Every structure is written in C-alpha cells, then in structure tokens.
C-alpha cells in the first residue's frame, strides 16, 4: 500500500487523462443500441403484418417501411441520454439518371426547421438533408467511405441498389474526445444494422406482395373455373332440355305414322310432318348457335359484306316473326326512318341479330306489342327492338349477354339456350358496332343494335352458307333426259336413303356404296358422271380417296362433290384443295344438292 502512496503525482496524472466508458456506461450503451434495434424490428414487423392483412399497393407498403426506418432511427438517436448533438435521418432513392433523390426524412425535421448538412471530406462542398434534394452518386460513395460513414446502402434480394440510408448531424457539443468517439461508433453501429433490417424488410415485403399477387391470380382463376363450371352445367342442362324436347316430337309423331293400322287423314298426316320438320329445324338452329359462338370465340367467323336494302330486310324479318306474334295476340310495329335506305353489312348475320332480339321480345311479352324502330344517328344506324313485356332486373342485366345465361324466371315453356344475345353482341362487335340495353321490371325492354353505315370494301372469306345461297336461288334443277349414273359414297344409311330417294325422283340412277373398298369395286363396273363423296368412312378418309382418284388416269376427270358434316371455318377450303369440284355441308339442303348435281352432270353444249 505504501508503494502506491509514493506515486501521488502519477496518480493525479492518470485521473486527469481521458477515460473510456465505464462498465456501467458500456452496458447502458449496448442496452440502448439493442433496444433501439428491437424497437425498429418490432415496427417493421408491424408494417409487414399490416401488408399481409390489407393487401396494399406495392409503392405504399414500401413507403411505409422506409418512413418507419427513418422515424425510428431519428427517435432513438435524439432521445438517447448519450446524444450530444442534433441528428436527422433520411433515405435517398436511386434514380435511373444515376443520381439519388432524398424522398424520406425524419419527422422531427418540420418544413420550417433548419435542415442539417451532410459532412463530406471536402470542406468546400456541403449537402443539405431535405426532401427532393438531389445527390450525385460520387458524393454518396464518399459518404459511404468516410470514417465514420454517413451513408449505408439499401439493396433488394438481387443485390440491386434501392437507395441509401443517410444521417446528418450537427457538430458534437463536447470537449471529451473519448465520449465523441464512443458515441460516433454507437451511432454507426445503429445505422449499419438498421440498414440491414430495412433491407431485409423490403425483401420480405416484395416476397409478401409476390405471394399475394400469386394468391389473387389463383383466386381469380379458381373463381373463373367455378363460374365456367356453373355455366357449363347450366348449358348442358339447358341444351339437354332443348334437344330432348324437339326430339320427343320427332320420334313421337314418326312412331304415330309408322304404327300398324294407323291411317291418318291426309290433313292430319301433313300436320304431323310439319311438326317433325319444324322440330328438326329447331335442332339445327340450336346447333348453329353453338357453332356460331364457337367460331366467334375462336376468331373464325366469316362475314360477307354487301349493300343491304334495309326496308326490304326489315320487312322480311317481320314476316318471319309475324306468326309467332299472332299466336300470342301481340301487335307488331315497324318504324323506319325514310332517310335510311341501304347499309353495308352481312345480310345473313344482320337478319340473325334482328331475329334474336325480336324472338326474345316476343318470348318475354304476354300482352301489348313488340316493335322495331330504325333511325340514323351520325355515321351509325340504330335498330331498336322494344317490347311491353316483363322487363329485366338490374341483377340479370349484368349477366344477360354472358354465354348460356338465362333469366331464372323466364316465361314458362320458352325456348332457348342462352346463346342468342351472346352471339348477337359478338356479331355486332364484328360489324364494328354494339348492343345496348334499357329495361325496367314490369315496364318492358329496349335492345338497340348500333351498326356503322359503311364497312371496309371487299369480301371476308367464302362461307359455305353463302355458296349455298347462290345455288339455292338458281333456277330449277336440271332434269336429265336420259338415265344418268351417280355414285354415292356414304357411310350413313339414313342419309344415303334420303339422297337416293330424292335423286331418283329427279331422274338420276344412284348407286350407293358405304366404304372405300366398295367404291373401287363399283368403279370397275360403272362409268358415273359424278361422285358424291362422304369424308368420314369406316375404312378411310374421303379426301384421300379424292386424291387417289385424281392420280388415276381413268377416273381423274370424274366430278366429285363432297357432302360432309365438316362445317367449320377452313373445311370448305380443305375439301377443295384435295381436288373436289364442290362442297355441301350436312344437314343436306336437297334443292342445293340438286343444283350442284345439275351443274356438274349437265352435258357440254
């Protein structure tokens, strides 16, 4: 003990030198650092949890995280007992122009407060920490590399720089260098670790938003699949009903006519045959609606642009619905603006659209009247079909033009599969127009078809229907003066019988074979003037048979007409490319068939 007392001057010297932080001060500093970081992490977790629950916009969620980091660091630094100066914290975001712009600053820096300077190694250049301040990248790199640093990088999960976490401080107010150095080290540790926390939170946020986006996509896809499944089930149920109803009439009345001992009067027999024919046409209409919708959705619908006599077309359309209106005791009203004479459109499709709207109006109207008003408005023609029927609720109007949708409280016994309006709207869009609806429950409805007066010149495609119409309007079929041999290659017995009977009545000699093998055998014995060829045969493809005929010197000049159920876009072209002379789709239009046979079997003049 005496040895120590002999060094009073030395001890006094030691007491006067700068001292490091005491153990208690070190613990307090470490506790402050960890507590501040824990508080920051807790706040960032809250931000991420909120993002999980609320599904925010990506920019808003990221902004919340960045502002939270700035505010928490600022609060920690300025509220600490270790703080010896005023500090401010900010974040500068990287810009494509290779600069950074200060977008976030600590909340303690109000707009009226004096901004703090960023300290640089060069005394002649100082930067203010304030919103919208632009900082060059080389200055940021200098702030990163100086000791202690004033900027720390923020990066995404790919390592790309998002921005920089920056701190600006006024000069430390103390003459104790050891305390200044200790505080600077603590502050640097806080900033560096806060930058890591911020980077991790931003990466986690992007993962959350990505998962949420994927979840939303899957949810939307699932809802769409459920909706499609419901529509499919509804369509199958409706279609099953629509198919079975006319089939019941066809089969039932056919059974009547075939019943042994049943001898109906000629009038009654004609009535039954008319019912069978009407039911068959209804089935064909159903199939055509389904095919039309499929063609439109596959962008395969063909249209023929023609200059249409609008008054004549409207009169023809009214003639087709007149009987149905009379059966229900409804009045039909047609109002045509005298200024409307012609319109460029597809006449078949325009008639189809107007008939769909008029039949719908008649279906949902039990008393009163149904009308069609045609007026010009600028470059467009407005075809408005109105009725005094039940009207349509707002809920049903939202789904009315969806495929297969039908109003739940439809008129009892009404026909349809929910395809007519969907097809009508899509056909209107193909014509460059639209369909509008105005309706109120118990006050009737107004469907307005809007079409432009003019279309692009020229034809689009060469539909089989148009070709058929051309022949159907020709004079009566040529009746041969002597027996003309026709070879019919047909897989289906009823269709073969139908064509045989019909052509025999016209004076043709028809030889029927049901497959390729029988065709070649028949050709060895016959010299037909024409071959009617089915495409789908039990032992081969009719189009390949045509190619084989064209490669055979003996048979290459025989005209071949394909009669097939292939009726989609491109089928006609495919058949003609195989070497056939002409094409007719099933169900067979008998007058059209006769016209085609007359054309190719008529001897040269």
Explain how this protein is built:
49% of the residues lie in helices and 18% in strands. It has 605 residues and is α/β, with parallel strands linked by helices. It has 4 domains: 28-171 and 178-217, Beta-Lactamase (2-Layer Sandwich); 245-298; 306-408 and 415-452, Heat Shock Protein 90 (2-Layer Sandwich); 484-601, 3-Layer(aba) Sandwich (Rossmann fold). The strands form 6 sheets. Strands 5-2-1-7-6 form a 5-stranded antiparallel β-sheet, sandwiched between helices. Strands 9-11-12-14-13 form a 5-stranded mixed β-sheet, covered by helices on one side. It has a 5-stranded parallel β-sheet with strand order 16-15-17-20-21, sandwiched between helices. A hairpin with a 3-residue loop joins strand 1 and strand 2 (99-105). Helix 3 runs antiparallel to helix 4 (58-79) and helix 9 runs antiparallel to helix 11 (420-430). The longest helix has 82 residues, at 177-258. It is elongated, with a radius of gyration of 43 Å. The protein starts with a helix and ends with a helix.
Secondary-structure topology with pairs:
Elements: H1 2-5, H2 8-16, H3 23-54, H4 58-79, E1 87-95, E2 99-105, E3 117-118, E4 127-128, E5 134-136, H5 137-145, E6 151-155, E7 161-169, H6 177-258, H7 266-297, E8 306-309, H8 310-327, E9 331-336, E10 342-345, H9 347-363, E11 369-377, E12 380-387, H10 394-397, H11 420-430, E13 434-439, E14 445-452, H12 464-472, E15 484-489, H13 493-505, E16 508-513, H14 516-523, E17 530-533, E18 536-537, E19 540-541, H15 542-551, E20 560-564, H16 571-577, E21 582-585, H17 590-601
Parallel strand pairs: 9-11, 15-16, 15-17, 17-20, 20-21
Antiparallel strand pairs: 1-2, 1-7, 2-5, 3-4, 6-7, 8-10, 11-12, 12-14, 13-14, 18-19
């Amino acid at each position: 003990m005496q040895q120590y007392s002999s060094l009073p001057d030395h001890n006094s010297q030691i007491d006067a030198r700068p001292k490091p932080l005491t153990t208690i001060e070190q613990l307090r500093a470490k506790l402050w650092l960890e507590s501040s970081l824990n508080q920051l992490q807790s706040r960032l977790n809250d931000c991420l949890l909120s993002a999980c629950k609320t599904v925010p916009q990506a920019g808003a969620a990221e902004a919340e995280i960045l502002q939270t980091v700035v505010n928490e660091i600022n609060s920690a630094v300025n509220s600490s007992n270790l703080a010896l100066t005023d500090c401010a914290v900010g974040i500068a975001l990287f810009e494509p122009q290779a600069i950074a712009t200060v977008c976030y600053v600590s909340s303690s820096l109000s707009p009226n407060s004096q901004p703090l300077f960023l300290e640089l190694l060069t005394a002649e250049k100082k930067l203010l920490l304030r919103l919208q301040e632009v900082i060059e990248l080389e200055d940021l790199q200098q702030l990163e590399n100086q000791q202690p640093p004033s900027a720390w990088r923020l990066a995404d999960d790919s390592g790309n720089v998002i921005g920089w976490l920056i701190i600006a401080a006024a000069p430390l107010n103390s003459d104790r260098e050891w305390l200044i150095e200790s505080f600077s080290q603590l502050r640097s540790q806080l900033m560096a670790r806060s930058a890591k926390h911020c980077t991790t939170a931003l990466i986690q946020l992007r993962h959350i938003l990505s998962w949420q986006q994927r979840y939303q996509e899957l949810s939307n896809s699932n809802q769409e699949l459920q909706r499609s499944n419901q529509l499919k089930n509804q369509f199958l149920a409706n279609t099953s009903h629509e198919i079975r109803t006319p089939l019941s009439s066809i089969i039932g009345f056919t059974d009547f006519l075939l019943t042994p001992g049943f001898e109906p009067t000629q009038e009654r027999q004609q009535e039954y045959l008319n019912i069978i024919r009407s039911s068959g046409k209804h089935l064909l209409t159903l199939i055509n609606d389904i095919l039309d919708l499929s063609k439109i959705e596959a962008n395969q619908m063909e249209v023929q642009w023609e200059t249409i006599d609008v008054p004549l077309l409207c009169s023809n359309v009214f003639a087709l619905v007149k009987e149905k209106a009379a059966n229900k005791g409804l009045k039909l009203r047609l109002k045509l603006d005298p200024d409307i004479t012609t319109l460029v459109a597809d006449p078949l499709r325009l008639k189809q659209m107007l008939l769909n709207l008029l039949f719908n109006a008649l279906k949902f109207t039990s008393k009163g009247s149904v009308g069609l008003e045609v007026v010009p408005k600028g470059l467009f023609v407005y075809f408005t079909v109105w009725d005094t029927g039940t009207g349509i609720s707002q809920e049903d109007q939202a789904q009315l033009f969806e495929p297969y949708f039908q109003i739940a409280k439809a008129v009892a016994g009404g026909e349809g599969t929910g395809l007519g309006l969907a097809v009508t709207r899509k056909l209107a869009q193909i014509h460059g127009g639209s369909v509008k609806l105005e309706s109120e429950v118990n006050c009737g409805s107004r469907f307005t078809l809007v079409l432009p007066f003019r279309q692009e010149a020229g034809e689009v495609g060469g539909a089989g229907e148009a070709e058929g119409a051309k022949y159907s309007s020709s004079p009566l079929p040529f009746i041969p003066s002597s027996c003309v041999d026709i070879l019919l290659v047909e897989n289906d017995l009823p269709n073969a019988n139908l064509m045989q009977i019909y052509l025999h009545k016209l004076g043709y000699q028809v030889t029927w074979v049901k497959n390729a093998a029988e065709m070649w055998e028949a050709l060895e014995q016959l010299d037909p003037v024409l071959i009617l060829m089915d495409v789908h045969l039990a032992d081969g493809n009719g189009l390949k048979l045509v190619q084989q005929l064209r490669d055979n010197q003996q048979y290459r000049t025989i005209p071949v007409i394909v009669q097939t159920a292939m009726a989609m876009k491109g089928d006609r072209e495919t058949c003609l490319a195989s070497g056939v002379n002409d094409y007719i789709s099933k169900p067979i239009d008998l007058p059209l068939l006769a016209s085609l046979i007359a054309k190719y079997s008529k001897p040269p003049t």
